[in-house]
Amino acid sequence: MKLRFRRNSLRLRVNRREAENLSTGLPLTEYVHFPGDTQFAYVLESGPAPEPQVEFKAGVVRVAIPLTHIQSWAKTDAIGMYFDLPANGSSLRVAVEKDLECVDGSPTERDPEAYPRSGNNCE
Fold first, then answer.
1. Tens digit of pLDDT per residue, the chain (123 long)?
2. Who contacts 35 (Cβ-Cβ below 8 Å, separation ≥6)?
3. Quick one: which of 82, 96, 120 has its CA closest to 28?
4. Residue 64 near residue 49 (C-beta atoms within 8 A)
5. pTM beyond cutoff 0.85
6. H or E segment at 73?
7. CA nearest 27: which of 70, 56, 57?
8. Less packed terminus of the chain by CB within 10 Å, N or C?
9. Distance, C-alpha 37 to centroid of its chain
């Protein structure tokens, strides 16, 4: 799973295996370890609320999406699920997308579990 921040938005990208696990109710978690014995984590999971939710607490970004939304998305050709959440008088734009294969990047950037694509971009 990949995470990208830009302005007041975040985007998570998942490969085929991760989307399949997510659609069965399994959470996805990634860690970034920093010097000084600290870490940052991000979690994508199904949640019990009827609407998507995002929180940031104790160094963890947690995105929870209703399981029915995840299952519907995983079965279709739709690339992403997109939503906006109120955030301190602003709006947080959240995207959860299928990670498309990188066809022109180095071998270390290629994920064999990525979704096939027809273009040649490696974002």
1. 999 999 999 999 999 899 999 999 999 999 999 999 999 999 999 988 899 999 999 999 999 999 999 999 998 888 899 999 999 889 999 999 987 666 666 666 666 566 567 644 455
2. none
3. 96
4. yes
5. no
6. helix 67-75
7. 70
8. C
9. 25
